[in-house]
Amino acid sequence: MSPRHSNAVAAETRESIVREAVQRASREGLEALTIGTLAADLDMSKAGVIGPFGSKEALQLAAIEAGNAIFRREVWEPVAELEPGLERLTAICDAWLAHLSGGVFPGGCFITAAAAEFDGRPGPVRDAVNSTLTLWLRVLAGEAKAAVANGELPAGTDPRQVAFELNSIAMGVNQGLQLRSDPRAVQHGRRAMERVLAPGR
Amino acid sequence: MSPRHSNAVAAETRESIVREAVQRASREGLEALTIGTLAADLDMSKAGVIGPFGSKEALQLAAIEAGNAIFRREVWEPVAELEPGLERLTAICDAWLAHLSGGVFPGGCFITAAAAEFDGRPGPVRDAVNSTLTLWLRVLAGEAKAAVANGELPAGTDPRQVAFELNSIAMGVNQGLQLRSDPRAVQHGRRAMERVLAPGR
Predict the structure, then answer these.
(1) Which of A46, A158, A176, A191 qualifies as a cystine partner to A182, CB 3.0-4.6 A?
(2) Does pTM surpass 0.95?
(3) Which residue in A105, A128, A109 sits closest to A118, CA to CA?
(4) How far is A193 from chain B (nearest CA, A)?
């Protein structure tokens, strides 16, 4: 096998392990990821599973990165070409609700689950989840700020308040869908987001 | 030891195990509760820890019941004597925010964490978490319905929408406090709740 071919195979193996880890962690949590279970799922040896990462924590961090990439692809990339402001923020909300109800993660929003799981456990995994969410809240606040500058949201609107509220609503939708299988969750979320983005209407 | 005395000791032992389980589960999750860790924390034998419950699942369910009792004591009981409607719903929100920021659970809202952890794992623990949240959403919706009947919220307000939004906001506050140690989380939550309870203002 040429070195180049062997590198490609190694990258593919790593990717398939991370993909399986993301699926499993979205259902059962990042901490419940065990090398043994992943090895059984993938019909690999334990050494083969852990090899490309070196530690369980590195595998958890790789799963978070892969989860982030899925979120970016589903929620950010479709709207990235739009101008900053209310139109893009509304498009983000639509894509976000579609993402939450689309079932790409079998256990619901990956980062929300990881946040609840790791908020009380200091360390690199908690830091990675925190960075992800902080970045996303900044993106949302940036859009809200642009919407205020465009005159699309009332002057005096606090962009961080808008970001906080949209993120809270998405968490509520995720809980409604995942825990309570509530068919009205997306509709409730949509109405709540509309109210945040069209205050006074 | 008289049978009555021995029963009292047994009840006390059970209670101290559940108390420790609630504290630990709020930080690390219900699934991470291990009999061995609890035994070490409490300086007891593993058999002594599991004895009063019979299974880890029964202990998890007892921890959920104890967590619910704490929530009722902190959020519901202080307002129970008020008349149903906007005043009581506002008082609930105040007590809820105080509860979330008060640190009674070292790892933040116990049920939110359990919901994120168990939403993808069917079984009695998930059912218990679901029942708890469904009941609480019904309480909130009942207050909103009374507020509409009193003319304190606009006619046509969907009480379940109000319940969904208040619960979402509480989740956002919990995440802000626990994961991001955001000092503005409670203020954001209070403003968002005020907006839900005073639409158009």
Answers:
(1) A176
(2) no
(3) A128
(4) 10
Residues 6+ apart with CB under 8 A from A115: A129, A130, A133, B116, B175, B179
Q: Where are the alpha helices (DSSP H) in chain A?
A: 3-28, 35-42, 46-50, 56-71, 86-102, 110-118, 124-149, 159-178, 185-197
For residues A80-105, one letter each, b for 16 or more C-beta atoms within 10 angstroms of the residue's C-beta and e for the rest, the string is eeeebbbbbbbbbbebbbebbbeebb
Give B58-112 pLDDT, tens digit per residue.
999 999 999 999 999 999 999 999 999 999 999 999 999 999 998 787 777 888 8
**CA atoms of A82 and A89, how far apart (whole Å):** 10
CA distance B75 to chain A (A): 20
**Alpha-carbon dihedral A121, A125, A131, A136, rounded to 10 degrees:** -100
Name the residue in chain A with its Cα closest to that of B198.
A200
Residue B135, Cβ neighbours under 10 Å: how many?
A: 11
Across the A:B interface, residue pairs with CB atoms under 8 Å apart total 136
**Looking at CA atoms only, how far is residue A104 from chain B in angstroms?**
14
Q: How many CA atoms lie within 13 A of B174 on its CB side?
A: 32
Verify whether the Cβ–Cβ distance B179 to A130 is below 8 Å: yes
Check if the beta carbon of residue A122 is closer than 8 Å to that of residue B133: no
How far apart CA B187 and CA B193 sit, in angstroms, is 10
Q: In this predicted complex, what is the ipTM?
A: 0.91
Q: Which residues of A touch B168 (CB under 8 A)?
A: 168-169, 171-173, 189, 192
Q: Which of B116, B172, B191 sits opposite A167 (nearest CB)?
A: B172
pLDDT tens figures, A74-101 = 999 999 999 999 999 999 999 999 999 9
Spatial distance between the Cα atoms of B177 and B156, rounded to a whole number of angstroms: 34
Identity of the residue in A27, A119, A195 whose CB atom sits nearest the CB atom of B178: A119
Of A192, A58, A196, A82, nearest in space to B163 by CA? A192
CB within 8 Å: B192 and A161: yes
